[in-house]
Amino acid sequence: MSRKIVYIATSLDSFIARKNGDIDWLEEDPSYDYYNEFIKNVEVILMGATTYEKVMSFGIDWPYPEQTSYVFTHKKDHADERNIKFTDEDIISLVEKLQTETTGDIWIMGGSDLINQFLRKGLVDEIVIGIQPIILGEGIPLFTQPDEIRLELTKVSSYDKGMIQVHYNVIG
User: Which CATH architecture has domain 4-155+163-170?
Assistant: First the structure.
């Protein structure tokens, strides 16, 4: 069965972006070696429209050509293209369908609103957070849902430029 994984970077104070959505504070670290292994197992990527627009704003080719991506949006001005599908389907219905069609992992990429919807509905199996060595003070928080969620720490890794990556299984 596919694992549903939140994989994301945050500041030390748990922001995923500045208030205006900028992620210019994210720093690449040549010693970071987890992403390539992670993406090999990902078959489906789920993201909100703002996250999709941010990726498109980089002016690069779609960086996930091997995966099927679903963009959650209520706008009707997007047409499916290549392996990108635009949907306003209920997340529970979509995940149930994907679990029958998919053997690889499902990456819940973001943003914060989508991640928190998945958490509230109990649809996350694992959380992997790369904590960047910066305090932003304000921005878009990763977690906004008020529900208590128990986690089991499975791995911690540190990298040369100060990033720490924590891996948790969601319990229950």
Answer: 3-Layer(aba) Sandwich (3.40)
Strands (E), the chain: 4-10, 15-17, 42-48, 68-72, 84-87, 105-110, 126-131, 140-141, 151-158, 164-170
The per-residue pLDDT for range 15-55, each reduced to its tens digit, is: 999 999 999 999 999 999 999 999 999 999 999 999 999 99
- Which tens digits make up the pLDDT trace of 111-133? 999 999 999 999 999 999 999 99
Domain ranges, ordered by start, for the chain: 4-155+163-170
Q: In whole angstroms, how far apart are CA 108 and each of 46, 67, 76, 77, 103? A: 5, 13, 22, 23, 15
Asked if residue 111 has a cis previous peptide bond (ω within 30° of 0), the answer is yes
Torsion of CA 2, 141, 78, 124, to 10 degrees: 10
Alpha carbon of residue 152 to chain centroid? 19
pTM: 0.94
Amino acid at 60: I
Closest CA to 38 of 106, 133, 119, 123: 106
